[in-house]
Amino acid sequence: MGRAVQPYELIKTKRDGGRLDPADIRAFIQAYTAGTVADYQMAAMCMAVFFKGMDSRELGAWARAMLESGEVLDLTDTPAVKVDKHSTGGVGDKVSLSLAPLAAACGVPVPMISGRGLGHTGGTLDKLESIPGFDVNLSTEEYRRLVREVGCCLIGQTAQVAPADKKLYALRDVTATVDCIPLIASSIMSKKLAEGIDALVLDVKVGSGAFMKRDEDARTLARTMIGLGAEMGRKVVALLTDMDQPLGRKVGNALEVMEAVDMLRGEAPEDYTEITYALTAEMLVLGKKAASVDEARQKLRRAVEDGSALRKLREIIQSQGGDPRSVDDYSLLPQARSTVDVVAPRSGFVTGIDTEGVGLAAVALGAGRQRVDSKIDPAVGFTLLKKTGEAVKEGEPVVRVHYNDEAPVNGVKARLLAAYRFGDAAPAPRPLVRERVE
Ligand code: URA
């Protein structure tokens, strides 16, 4: 029998800045997973953690309890070093969609358990589900088989894999408790450590569209996750990457799938291509398929040029029930019925983009969820015609809005306009990869 849980007492202790006992944390998470701690109690606890934090002992216990809420998948029947990547979340962040086939095409098996959109950020599962037929709800046996035979499988959390995070992730999404270092670190590491990986690359986003707006917070988050990985015997490398403007030019589920396919053809925007290469190169080194990041980059470029990365994507889509022809014919992906442009109010340069504002505008348009049970529209989103540093003329389109439902459109256009800043001079470009933390 588990320890008796007094949710009220534990929430109060944390609310008042006290420390929780690891055994109480374990019992609280177990009871939440089983449904005897209610969502509203967990929401209150998350808000208390948001304000009062957790020390490393509490965090270790919290992360381990989340990991142990399900099983740790055994992928030892795939002998190679298995490596995954996880992003802390951003806007237009479709890196997983191109990185997973690229790494797999270069011989690194990629077992990937992904999440849905969270707060103002998009989620890989929602993007994948915009591919007709693509099934992210596979059994553990099927997951194991596809990692072994295809070299990659992308699924959502199941009842077996970190189920505590599955519930908590959806709850935090709608209770403003996402941007909290211990909650993010335990969420990511519990599901990543459960998926059967040997090593992990973390993409810790930093900037106006990330949960971490400041470099020092992103660094702390990276170090926290690396520490949790080390405690559990996994090699983890983190890159701090720029999220001060959306990545690439597409925001929205099916639109991002198209841009990911463009990347594998060598035709995607430079920022998105560069970040994908930087992260995938780290995976190849960890997976022992390249001796250095430079050698890894050469292999990645070759996999794009010879078409093997694109072939791997078709194979992954087919193996998970999706229509592989969507890679070659975008009309098979969901398409919005209408578009309208947001235009520049003045001539000059785009001097910055409040990227969280763009993400929230995408949610308002229907590309993300406003409630746990909201249905998303896979077709809607934005094409960013202008990004930071680019010149504009008054009246020139800066963002194209792809929509189905007319109702939110005016509000969305106003939000986008408010998110864009214009000025007389282009700002100095910022490095895409800010820092590497090991
Ligand atoms: N990604 C996750 O998986 N969890 C978080 O809490 C934030 C980003």
Automatic annotation (TrEMBL):
GO terms for cellular component: cytosol. It is an enzyme of class 2 (transferase). It catalyses: thymidine + phosphate = 2-deoxy-alpha-D-ribose 1-phosphate + thymine. Its EC number is 2.4.2.4. Pfam families: Glycos_trans_3N, Glycos_transf_3, PYNP_C. PANTHER family: THYMIDINE PHOSPHORYLASE (PTHR10515). This is thymidine phosphorylase. It comes from Myxococcus stipitatus (strain DSM 14675 / JCM 12634 / Mx s8).
